[in-house]
Design brief:
Oligomer: single chain
Shape: globular
Number of strands: 37
CATH topology of the largest domain: Methylamine Dehydrogenase, Chain H
Number of helices: 0
Distance between the termini: 34 Å
Strand order of the largest sheet: 1-35-32-31
Length: 413
């Protein structure tokens, strides 16, 4: 088998292959947009929605492998999204919750009886019963699938509600600015503010994400890498720091009592498998700020962030991106990842053919096209220089003369 050493100014990425298939791993999925993305939610393993800045809404019907933009009649930033079914979804804007009941073909606006208050979080306990958590500690709810929303209520504290979680139609919690945690036991008519051990444990820290796994066990994530946890239904919240003071934690999601994830700034994702006793950092695929995270199973999840970044945890990639097909031109291995000044590539070609190489950015846009000369089948070793390439995340696409291809992602830092 002939081995050839080539030197190219090109980028590849490493995704482990096993028996012709990918291991479950984090991947960057091209979004086709550059707006900041704030929230992601799936109705099932296939159908999901993303909300972002400038009324950006994206929809997927194939496990988040591909995303298409959906037009919504608004100019608001969509800080939150919730899907109760593949066809029924809700987006939180400014004083309005936008709803679709036909998969995004049309939307109608449900006024929250407030004036330009941002809807920061949404939750539905059933197809009809939903809750919106808003600025200035405002809280509204619907009992008719978003057709109408109640008059705002809240804790009377001026700080914003940044996230909320209803355990049932009576009991729920909210978190927000400056250490704001409050509880309701009457469906949001009144809220009791947590007093932080008579304020001995209080600090003015903004809390951005909230999730409960039971009536007693809850988790809240905040600035400065802080995780708050309660095991007694909110009577006491302990504090743990899992990241640095510059690392804002933005969202938390649990699949069950043991398995959960946290997203944060600088591309941080943490996972626990023991109910939050320990948090382990996941591979860092990007350095942009992540804002939302959601999983439909332990092997399928998504995170979204600034600059249109979508991360997907699962097997395979988007159509034409990361899927090994029967007519795939070969295999690629790359190391180390992340890389610095260079990266080593092992390229195995199945057939002799003309081979084409493309460099794409994290949005899937072509940065540079490179045509490689006709090569025989066999294995090739490439040492690729990365000099002059800005830090970031990229895709490299290998395509043969028949149009079959493989993509890889790579982080340079």
């Amino acid at each position: 088998m002939k081995r050839t050493s080539l030197l190219l100014t090109l980028i590849f990425a490493l995704l482990t292959e096993v028996s012709g298939q990918y291991d479950v791993a984090w991947q960057i999925i091209p979004s086709g947009v550059s707006e900041n993305l704030y929230s992601v939610h799936f109705a099932n393993s296939n159908a999901g929605y993303i909300g972002g800045a400038g009324a950006r809404c994206l929809k997927s019907t194939n496990e988040g492998k591909n995303w298409a933009s959906v037009s919504v009649p608004s100019v608001a930033d969509f800080q939150t999204v919730w899907a109760t079914s593949p066809g029924d979804a809700y987006l939180g804007g400014w004083d309005t919750v936008y709803a679709t009941h036909n998969g995004g073909q049309s939307w109608y606006d449900g006024y929250t009886n407030s004036f330009l208050l941002a809807v920061n979080d949404l939750q539905f306990l059933s197809p009809d019963n939903g809750y919106a958590f808003m600025q200035f500690s405002s809280f509204v709810k619907t009992a008719n699938a978003g057709s109408t929303w109640s008059e705002p209520s809240g804790s009377g504290i001026i700080e914003d509600y940044l996230a909320g979680f209803m355990l049932n139609q009576s009991t729920g919690f909210v978190v927000g600015q400056c250490g704001h945690i409050a509880r309701t036991d009457d469906g949001g008519a009144t809220w009791v503010f947590y007093e932080w051990n008579n304020y001995a444990d209080w600090s003015c820290i903004d809390i951005y994400g909230l999730h409960f796994t039971s009536a007693t066990n809850g988790y809240a994530v905040a600035d400065s890498g802080v995780v708050f946890r309660t095991t007694d239904g909110g009577n006491y919240w302990s504090r743990t720091e899992i990241a640095g003071p510059e690392d804002r934690l933005t969202d938390v999601f649990f699949l069950n009592a043991n398995i959960g994830w946290i997203s944060g700034y600088n591309g941080l994702i943490f996972k626990t498998t023991d109910g939050g006793d320990n948090w382990i950092q996941e591979p860092q695929m990007t350095f942009v700020n992540l804002h939302g995270i959601f999983f439909s199973s332990e092997s399928l999840g998504w995170a979204v962030g600034d600059e249109g970044v979508i991360l997907r945890y699962g097997v395979g990639g988007p159509s034409g991106l990361g899927d090994i097909q029967a007519d795939s031109p070969g295999e690629l291995l790359a190391y180390p990842n992340p890389a610095g000044e260079y990266i080593e590539i092992e390229l195995t070609l199945r057939d002799g053919d003309d081979y084409f190489l493309q460099l794409l950015d994290q949005y899937g846009r072509t940065i540079k096209e490179i045509q490689q000369s006709t090569l025989r089948s066999g294995k090739y070793t490439l040492q690729i220089t990365l000099a002059g390439l800005p830090d970031g995340t990229y895709l490299c696409r290998l395509t043969n003369g028949k149009g079959a291809g493989i993509d890889r992602m790579f982080v340079k830092q």
